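Honest question from a wet-lab person: if I give you the sequences of every part of a complex, can you actually get the arrangement of the whole thing, not just the pieces? Trying it with mine:
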Amino acid sequence: MNPWMLYLVWPLIKFLIAFVIVQVIVAAMNWIERRVLGLIQARLGPNRVGPWGLLQIVADPIKFLLKEDIVPSSAEKIAYFLGPMLPLVPAFIVFCLIPFGPPPTFAVTHTNVGLLLILALTSTGVYGIILGGWASNNKYSLMGGLRSAAQMVSYEVPFGLSIVGVLMLCGSLDLVHIINYQAHHVWNVFPQLIAAFIFFVSMNAENNRTPFDLPEAESELVAGYHTEYSAMKFAFFMLAEYSAMLVNCCLMVSLFLGGWTLAIGGYGLTTATLKSMGFMGGLLGTVIFVVKVMTFMMIYIWFRATFPRFRFDQLMDLGWKWMIPLALINIFVTGIVVLAAPEMIINGSVVPVGETILAVAGAATVALTLFLIMKPRAHAPKVIHASRVSEA
Amino acid sequence: MNLTPLLEAHWINAILPELVLCIGGMFLILFDAFAPKARSLTGPIAVVIFILCAWSQRFVAVGTFFGGTYEVGGITRVFDITFVLAGILCTLLSADYLEREGITGGEFYALLMWGTVGMMMMAKGLDLLIIILGLELLSICIFVLLGFQRRLPVSNEASLKYFLMGAFATGFILYGTALFYGATESTNINVMARWFANPDVTITPLLTVAFVLLMAGFGFKLALAPFHPWAPDVYQGAPTPVAGWLSVAPKAATLIALIRIFHAMGPVLPQTKWMTIVAWLAVLSMIIGNSVAIAQRDLKRMLAYSGIAQVGYMTIAMLTINEDAVASIAIYTIVYALMNLGAFGVISMLAKNQNDPQTLDDIAGLGWRRPFHALALAVCMFSLSGLPPTGGFVSKFYIFRTAVQSGHTGIALIGIITSIASVYYYLRVVYYLYMKESAEGQTRIDGGIFATGALAISIIGIFLIGIWPTPLFHAASYAAHLLLAR
Amino acid sequence: MEQLTASMPLIVFVMIGTVAVASSILVVAMRNPVHSALFLLLTFLCVAVLFVMQKAEFVGAVQVLVYAGGIMVLFLFVVMLINVRHLPDERVLSNFWKGGFLVGLAVFALFVTMVRPGVYHDENPNKSKLSTVRDRVAINSTKNPGRLGHKRITRHNVNSEAVANALYTDYLVPFEVASLFLLVAMIGAIVIGKRELSAVEEETAPDYMLARVETEREIKEAMSA
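Yes, you can. This is the full assembly:
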């Protein structure tokens, strides 16, 4: 095939298709989130435009496009414009690297360090928030940006560390390889329960979702870093945030829940089975993938409706004193188990002893951690009394 | 899971001393944090850890490890012992010093240990990367140790000066290394040696620039003459035991690293002028160090300039790398560690405001007030000036004999002459100790049991090596033989 | 078309290289610290692209992950915390600019002439540099049958695996010491930077911390007595 077709045109077409699907999902997410929140909070949610308010998906973008675009006079112009743009770019590029279905047809590109590149790109998403917060020249925005920077940097560490356990089990940075490995063994969520738990928590924190939504805490900071943004710029922020959520859910599904496959120990819908079904099989895999991803998007919403917001010191405590040590212990234990107790052959059948040990230990640890975190503190920190401060 | 052996057998034994010190340092930090009431025990525990490290030398596996990037042999053992000795002496001196100055912290000893790990890596690294990493680990520990007395402006000044100078020096070394890598296509010293041994090799200006940069960087770390100006200020401001340690151990580590590099370059050295550069550094160090030291009344500054001169002597031996040269440098560093740390030890006991200089007047008439401490200082001064029957005489004699035998008579002569001149300022200390009346408001000498023990160790060591040097000579020569025999 | 395809890497290199150099100059030239930081970010990203072009995907990804994702965020964080909007206007060139310019030019000329053309150019990228990377595989020993021996094979150069092999075999010691190095730097920073608590902080500090401060004070008093 012509190299231009192979390396430029086809990937571009695939990317465009993925892009459109992602955008539709993101726009739909807005409606779904409001409806589901309404459901949970025993109210209606948007139900005026179209049947069940479905046309809200169209109405919102039109509103964003037509509204006045306000630029604060004291804003730092260049950075103010860059702010909403910067997080969009990595959020879109990442979709090139995620295999939605059996490759090569349903994956845009395929590199052997795919996971690392995804991590690298998602880690640059924070710039938009920082810049937007700083450039608005507004105290609330600045606070939001600062909080976001601290939060992102703190939770990037457990986010990355939790993946290491998966890498050690699967022995590759290639998402396709990781997914195939899971289809032939077991979903990583079982042997790597701790990692999945940490990954999920830090994923929430990375996306600034409740209970980690301090950068845009309404009751403290008005709207945080995007207080001064309106119209399409504000929409860009939202777009980037939901895209990032989607990316993280895709990662979660690929790393821990078998991606597009639906198989255990090589039985069921593995990649080979899907490929044997031709294009329809690929499509089926993609549907499985999307269903799994949407489940996690629902969990996001469920979290938002359920949990109260952390205080900032609690957030930092959780990140540095719980998540990072847990992730390190997970790596340590996984390393030992992978080296010392690999698969054993008992009565002619392969028994994944190591993975079983990991699964049991992981469940116990997660339970213990949750218990310790949830346990009420014996000594609540003293509250500063205003008069004391003035005395000091 | 394929459990193929990726590393050489016994690799853990190869890094055992480093492991002991690393883990010991971490243990001390945790001990300090979780048992704050038992802080007075950190010093003794640190000594025990250092002794454990020395003891672990028994189990060390000899050979090259990690794919030829790490060499453990006789000479590294000799240098390891030097580093551990310096560490123990410094710890003993600091235990009392820190208590008197009101500094608490297991971090101090932990940093000392980690610095020692860095030095051990410099001694064992067969790869320029390892040498540089070890050097940097050491440097960071030194920055912090120098600034440990945060309340004292001089201490901060010392830390900042060493930091700025050290950063520059590291930059030079890295640049030189990069250029060497470009020329020889490896950072591994053995591979570089093979490259240099190739008879067709041409000495391009690139290599000369690389060598000059490398020497500039290492010259900073060694306090060789044109790169020495940081030394007096840093020694003066540093906590005194740290100044003693700094004047001894890092220099030894840098020297052994340079010996490896020079040995690798051996085949091409005759056709280059590189050694002339080194010779000039040595000559300048000896002249400047000794002549400026005469003018100093501040004891720490005087010892700083004397240290510059002493490194000059050691550099003479490096002009030609052979067994005698390596052995003489090894012996010199051991003796130097004993006598210089002993001298700094006595100074560290001067109980006065550490922001003021410790001058000759402070020790006037000390011989009659505190005979033992005065005796220790006197012995160290005799040894530093190279008078028999001290270890200083033996090591200095060996160095100059090696230089003469390798045909560097002129430089050796300069060394001997400047060394004679140095007797003046070393013995002036002894004169103040015994011949001067102590002034009014004399400075108290405040030495606890640990510091006195350290002084005893150094006196015994100095005399032992001075009177009966044969076993050490044999050990060092054999180790040097093994190093150069590859 | 064929020619264009063939010279594509060169075109990309020139473009990205130009952007990298230009933005690195702008890092120094900008008067607004945030703008400087942004240009530094651009430089890092361009360098990452250059790495990828040299078939070092791993290094490229790590470059973005560590420098762009971690270090620059911290930079921006600090800049924003200090909240410097614009540095005071001052002359960009100092009084010594002529001398400095000459020295810089001389050093540049020196290195341009010294570096023999092609010194840093390698026909087979990564091959010789990572030639120390080799696998040991267990095989049946030829010398003593029945026992395991091992032989070394040079393996197909997969990027991340090559790096991992180098790091965990030949460069294990520097790799581990780098972590010790960071620990030392962190502890050193704390030692140098820590201070005693002020009155307000004592009001708000948690009990366990106050208890520690109290013990420390007791120890200090006991020592000075």
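Two things worth pointing out. The CA atoms of residues 379 and 459 of chain B lie 7 Å apart. The radius of gyration of chain B is 22 Å.
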